[in-house]
Amino acid sequence: MIVKMDESLARSEVSVGLKAMNLAKVKEAGIDVPFTIIVPSEDISNLLSKCGIRHKVFMLSRALLDKEIQDKVRELERDLRSSILSLTIPEELVSEILDSISGNIGKISVARPSPYAPELRDGDLKGRMSVWYDEPTRRGIIRSIQRVISGVFSLRSMARLLDLGIYPEDMDLAIIFQKAIFPRSSGLAICCPARRKNEILVESTWGIMDSVPKDRFRISIDLMDIVESELSEKKVKLIPSTQGLREVEVPHDLWMEPSLRGDEAKNIARISSELSLTLGTPTLMEWIIQEGSNSLFVIQAHRESERPPIKTVEKKVLRLLEEKVGYGEISKKPEVREKSIENLIEVPQIGPIASKILVKLEEMVRVENVDGYLVNVENLREDLLEEDKIYLVLVPPDWKGQVNITGEGDRMKVLVEIPDLKRVRERALQLYSLFPSHGLVIYLRNAGSVLLSESLSEFFEGALLDIGNIFEFGGEDAVKASITLSSSYFDYVIADLTGIGIKADIIEGLIDGGAEGFCIDERRVSRLLGEVSRAEMRYLLRKIRELSYYLRTLHKGSEEGD
Description:
With 562 residues, the chain is of the alpha/beta class. The chain folds into 3 domains: 3-180, Dna Ligase, domain 1; 183-290, 2-Layer Sandwich (D-amino Acid Aminotransferase, Chain A, domain 1); 343-547, Phosphoenolpyruvate-binding domains (TIM Barrel, Alpha-Beta Barrel). Helix content is 37%, strand content 23%. It is built from 16 helices and 23 strands. It has helices at residues 13-28, 41-50, 53-64, 71-85, 91-101, 138-152, 155-163, 262-279, 312-322, 338-341, 424-434, 447-450, 453-456, 467-487, 504-513, 525-561, and strands spanning 3-4, 36-39, 109-116, 132-134, 172-179, 183-191, 199-206, 215-220, 226-230, 236-241, 244-249, 283-290, 296-303, 344-345, 356-361, 366-367, 372-376, 390-395, 412-416, 439-444, 462-466, 492-496, 517-521. An 8-stranded parallel beta barrel has the order 15-17-18-19-20-21-22-23. Strands 9-8-7-6-12-13 form a 6-stranded antiparallel β-sheet. A hairpin with a 7-residue loop joins strand 6 (183-191) and strand 7 (199-206). Helix 3 runs antiparallel to helix 4, helix 4 (71-85) runs antiparallel to helix 11 and helix 7 (155-163) runs antiparallel to helix 9. It starts with a strand and ends with a helix.
């Protein structure tokens, strides 16, 4: 049974978790918090126990306690992650969540873990358990639960629990679903009179607080006056999207402007001081000021832990994660002709292109002015990877090699084609095991596979559409219908233009339908970049004309009404 924020204080900490309990205390104090519901720990515990995940957590935690970190840890971690990311969420639970958030969460929801264990304080796990942004839809709810559980039982968070004397398999876990507040500014307030000479430290930035530069304000607890302020140059900001936090540029005139007004900083400090009486000190409070309304919301608050941040088991895990072997050096080095390594294809930049451009490579070469590459797993050379490029790594349908691809998950994706779509679930589980740290992309070769986009999107975050094959089957109408349908379910869709001659008008239709990028041939980079640029310009001009017509019509209607 879903628990509303107002009902949390009537429940036990075991049921709603520490994070939800603290947030309920914040709301009871009369401070605004975003709309929030809680999936209680008993529901999550039953889910984890029935499917055997809790036992796998037990096996992995015991392996972490061994004197030496062995290959067994990596194997168990891959198996656990695969099980979690393929976890079946009961339909009745999903429906109850959807009913609870209907009308309360619009475009984006935030899923947060809310753990509980004896002797555990909310701040003990700071920075070790991730949140997940997604759409408030059936697919978004399922994926959010899977991703939050996966983050809770990551190697580092489990190691932290063990260092605190807590067995991960014994920990209770509730999950919070919250309305995502679109931020003007956000930050932290730290109230610790003993350490900070009777002052409150307020940190803030444009957008969502993360590792970006931030402003700092020191505020006297007694007088609630700003004692000292320090401004940073803030050129970019993070905003929530259904693909997580997205980085956007800050207007030049705001780079050195304070992200908080003086009265706002004082108000945040006042709230932090009041919460310190409720939660105890030292207190850490996370807040957001909403874009447009300038309304202040407290996202979470807790008593800050003073325990050592990293201890024995976590140090072992950090060393493991830093090792190249296992996490992951490719076991079999492919043969690549050395002359291709030195090749550099210089492509003139046609103009500002917004779409992502990936180049299909037969051999590892560098191509200027593109966003990334599509490359076969057999031809991948890790020593030649470029840090600023996206890699779509094609894995054959029958691939069974135990290969780990290094690189961050947001720039290294695994592309797979599944001829027998009846075996999608089985194949997806195998892929999660082989590539636990990377997003999966499905290769949709024909209109029939496109029609299965909704069910396929439960396993794959993105899709690559074979535009040539779809065009040959049904012409331009089939292409438009396919891109529109697939983009409504997958996080992103890339249009594969390799091997075909295609004009700007069809590319414009793909952009209009939701294509985020294009995959093109290495030998036709220059020409196709020109076509994409022309298509984008046509699309932009058409939208400007449509907007201009709408505004004229609106203005004319207003005059007639007067």
